[in-house]
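Troubleshooting: if your tokenizer reports a length mismatch, compare against these two reference records.
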Amino acid sequence: MNAAAMPSPDALYIGVSTKMYMGYARSLAWLEQLVAEVDARPALAAGRVVPFVIPSFPVLPAAAALVADSPLALGAQNCGWSDGPWTGEVAPSMLAELGVGLVEIGHAERRRHFAEDDAVVALKVGAAVGSGLTPLLCVGETEACAPEAAAEIVFHQIKAAVSGDWAVAARLVIAYEPVWAIGAPEPASAEYVSQVVGALREALAQHALAGLPVIYGGSAKPGLLPRLTGVSGLFLGRFAHDAANFGRVLDEALSFCTADALKTSSKGQ
């Protein structure tokens, strides 16, 4: 996904963030392994499964060179809301210059530890879209609740992030991460996640956005994706810091797409 790419409602997105678990040298060594896992799967070139990686800011220039000839898309873990007098921030326009196509915005850690509220998230989303980036908008309820209630919370988070402009929402990839499941020994159940995403899509359908990519994050591991319904992929954490594990999930996604294509083909005959 380059800086000008639009999210595809038909693709599965499989991604991983390093957060701050790796140093510079280890990050580059891991990225080389990740690129090897991706390049070992030529079927990814078709674009039905979109792999992405989100390393730390200092790694981005070298990472851009490493993934240049690979289907692996490059993301950033955060961005500022503009260029100018913002010491310590990184402008989305600079990220675009570096070859970043995706930027994570609104993660629960940013909200909790850095006091980012809906207004800040909306500023960042607007700036990212204005710079040609695809916001990976992180949303999710803080406590387990009924799927319909969780979907309503998430819907209002999306609405706030785009300031009610649903044309902007069409530029997003949604990372549904129930906060109570992040870092948990087990993810939220597949049934719960599927029900939340299904109810969310019903709400988004009122704005012609039922096909918006919605991926799941929260202790996600192999074996989960085939059990989900209506979910557009997985956002992986430390589990995928072993590059071979990332490859295992890519295989599941590719198998899922192949099975889906065969079903569609048989229906058309």
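Reference record two:
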Amino acid sequence: MDNVDRVLAQWHAERPDVDPAPMGVVGRIQRASRLLEKGLATYFATHDLQLWEFDILATLRRAGRMTAGRLVTASMVTSGAITNRVDRLVTRGLVTREVDPDNRRSVLIDLTAEGRTLVDKILAGHIDNENRLLAPLDLEDRDRLANLLRTLLTGLGDVPD
């Protein structure tokens, strides 16, 4: 039993005419997301980072310098949020912002040497932390869950551009 089972049982008792099964799936995904984010945030806090900061730094580390627009797409936040976040990372000396010499209307975001060093320093520990968070699942269950979530995400429209 988990907390979602309790909620579903309450719905069954109060509204036996309604099948709340979809609430079970969506509720578990939402709860798992919150618990995973909490576990990730705890790890990143030990490196004086917030989860969103690592997301941007890691995106730049794996994909290289990119326009602010591409970073918006990669991070799934608004352009206003990216501007604010990049400003904060520039202030911390972890990223740079420069006008694209090939298109003066675009801004290029890149890691500084300090930003690159930070990502490289904490990446292995991040992966270890994710393994710890996923410890209740064996490797076969992880693969099965990853495939199911991929099917759901692509069905919801989360596909590469």
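Descriptive notes for reference record two:
- Strands lie at 66-67, 95-100, 103-111.
- The chain is about 70% helix and 10% strand.
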